[in-house]
Write a structure and sequence with these properties.
alpha/beta; 6-stranded parallel beta sheet; 7 helices; globular
């Protein structure tokens, strides 16, 4: 088995923008980082609708998405025996990308009904990086309150808002910008977009 550089948890929920989570996972695996992957039921629906993937065999779907699965561990949402359910298991951070407003609400109120929410709670209580990438518009007051509550308790909010100063030409350029901002916050080097002044 390939030796991992760092270990991250990536969670993909049912908000629009599953491609962000896929691209982030691809990049982390490409750089030889170990990834614990969580996909909510609504996330799998978005895979079907937005990415037009056949998800009838989920393991096969993941194999097709990520040609390098040597460092990838996919977990059932209710497998509380998974290592990421415990603070004693060391990771270098967790990213929920995209983060639905329902998932945000549960995290903001420490409601751990699934492994995804438990892993997020573990990152907060252990003071490890927890990055939330909300993809919703417009936002109501409850959404904003929950974002503030999560941020005040240690989460880092990185909205899926691509920049345009690098003059994007394709959809991939926009996706890579958001994923690159996430990687910056994880202190993972990348060349997904041209930096200002470069």
């Amino acid at each position: 088995m390939t030796k991992a550089t760092k270990t991250f948890t990536v969670a993909i929920t049912g908000a629009s923008g599953a491609i962000y989570g896929v691209r982030l996972t691809e990049e982390l695996l490409l750089q030889k980082h170990h990834v614990h992957l969580l996909i909510s039921e609504a996330g799998w629906q978005v895979f079907r609708e937005e990415l037009e993937l056949d998800t009838s065999d989920r393991q096969e779907c993941l194999y097709q998405l990520f040609s390098s699965t040597d460092l990838l561990d996919s977990h059932d949402l209710y497998d509380f025996k998974a290592p990421i359910a415990s603070g004693s298991y060391r990771t270098d951070g967790m990213v929920i990308i995209p983060c639905s407003m329902g998932t945000l609400s549960k995290i903001a109120h420490a409601s751990s009904g699934s492994l995804l929410e438990r892993a997020a709670d573990v990152n907060l209580k252990e003071r490890r990086p927890l990055l939330l990438v909300p993809r919703e518009t417009p936002l109501n007051g409850i959404h904003l309150d929950n974002l503030v509550k999560a941020e005040k308790n240690g989460a880092h909010i990185i909205p899926a808002m691509p920049g345009f100063y690098h003059l994007p030409e394709t959809k991939d350029d926009l996706i890579n910008f958001v994923v690159g901002k996430v990687l910056d916050s994880l202190h993972v080097d990348h060349s997904l977009f041209t930096r200002w002044g470069s």
